[in-house]
Write a structure and sequence with these properties.
This protein is α/β, with parallel strands linked by helices. About 30% of the residues lie in helices and about 25% in strands. It is globular and about 65 Å long.
């Protein structure tokens, strides 16, 4: 595993790679590196896309989703200009561990879409899950589907040793390990939570649309016997009927009349709703978790 400066590495990656996967833990600098890499490619006239699969501290699109941004026509690639996603993949959780399959599937679909759109370079920023068997499985299956040319790991000490070792043993891919810049400040849990809440709240700014929804529009379909009150505040993905997510919404339960509504800033285009696994209010604050197996099992 080679160790080089970030500037040298960016220059080499822009010239030689088509798909690059970034791996690192919390506040490791991988997102900043990825944006700088995308900007370097844009300046050279290379068509580049950025796929953000960090569900908790999203750079592209809302938390609980994988976001895709086409960067080629941006004035500059930075966190502000990539905020509005060109396409989303709904996962429904801010924690990778809660939906590994959904996270892998959404990431693979958006990378495939970027390639089909003709992007010469696709950069994939992964989740901060980096330790334990779930982390290894997540990265393994992403690699298996994405087949990148290069993996760049950002680590303190040797914390990525197990994951990078697995990737090197099982895939024909070049792996570069970078030491995390000592000047990168680690945010507290409270700071990260506040950032996530602010991001989520920005997607529920007035004016909001409220539609009464039928049980048959959900995936999985709600049976007549399920208590709809238990879905109050549940995060949902708005699907357009072509396999694409148009945005996010919240469910709102009204006891009088046993009415279930969907609340969202999205006005049109949704044909189905995918159930998430967290409950929120419109201020972006988590008010509970939702485990589908608890109500679907009776």
């Amino acid at each position: 595993m080679a160790r080089v400066s970030q500037t040298e590495l960016i220059e080499r990656l822009v010239e030689s790679c088509r798909t690059i996967v970034l791996v690192g833990g919390i506040d490791s600098g991988k997102t900043g590196f990825g944006l700088n890499l995308a900007e370097a490619a844009r300046r050279k006239g290379i068509s580049v896309a950025y796929v953000d699969s960090d569900l908790d501290q999203s750079t592209v699109g809302p938390p609980a989703c994988v976001g895709l941004k086409f960067c080629t026509d941006l004035p500059v690639v930075d966190a502000k200009n990539v905020r509005d996603a060109d396409e989303l993949g709904f996962v429904g959780s801010c924690s990778a561990e809660q939906n590994l399959v959904g996270l892998v599937a959404a990431t693979a679909r958006l990378v495939s879409h970027a390639r089909e759109a003709g992007c010469r370079l696709v950069i994939v920023d992964t989740s901060t899950l980096i330790s334990g068997p779930e982390a290894e499985l997540l990265k393994f299956h992403k690699m298996d589907l994405l087949r990148p040319d290069h993996v760049v790991g950002f680590q303190r000490g040797e914390e990525l040793g197990p994951i990078l070792g697995v990737l090197s043993r099982f895939f024909s891919v070049e792996v570069t390990a970078l030491k995390i810049d000592g000047e990168i400040a680690e945010r507290s849990v409270e700071e990260r939570l506040a950032a996530r809440e602010t991001s989520l709240a920005s997607y529920f700014q007035p004016p909001l649309n409220r539609w009464r929804v039928k049980r048959t529009v959900f995936m999985p379909t709600l049976s007549p016997g399920i208590d709809a009150a238990r879905l109050d505040g549940l995060l949902v993905g708005l699907e357009d009927g072509t396999g694409r997510c148009r945005g996010i919404g919240l469910l709102e339960y009204q006891a009088e009349g046993d009415v279930l509504r969907m609340v969202s800033s999205i006005g049109t285009g949704a044909r189905g709703l995918r159930l998430g696994s967290i409950r929120l209010n419109v201020e972006g604050r988590t008010i509970g978790r939702f485990l589908a197996q608890e109500i679907f099992s009776g």
